[in-house]
Design brief:
103 residues; elongated; mainly alpha
Length: 103
């Protein structure tokens, strides 16, 4: 039986160790981590829902959105922000990805 040395690490292990060191240095104020800003355009919520021929109730239930919030988005009284905005973009462009996660 082969004796595995503790200092033998996979590439993934080395990458995780490096990432954790960087996080620690960031928390200690020794370095600034790289960040990216992504601009996601405002989704056309009604068009996305109608693309799948779903009622407001069905769409809201399927994606965990309150019907009232969905109605406000569709009427332009409020607009999706943060994760909701990104989720709607994914629903619009790659609904199978969302379906795979939900089911």
């Amino acid at each position: 039986m082969k004796n595995h040395k503790t200092d033998e690490r996979t590439d993934l292990g080395k990458s995780l160790e490096k990432a954790m060191r960087e996080v620690l240095e960031h928390v200690q104020g020794k370095m600034t981590l790289e960040s990216r800003e992504v601009e996601v355009s405002r989704p056309e919520v009604r068009e996305i829902r109608e693309q799948y021929a779903l009622s407001q109730q069905d769409f809201a239930r399927l994606f965990g959105i309150s019907v009232r919030t969905l109605q406000q988005w569709e009427q332009g009284r409020r607009f999706p922000q943060g994760p909701a905005k990104i989720l709607l973009s994914v629903i619009s462009k790659n609904p199978q990805a969302v379906w795979d996660v939900l089911h």
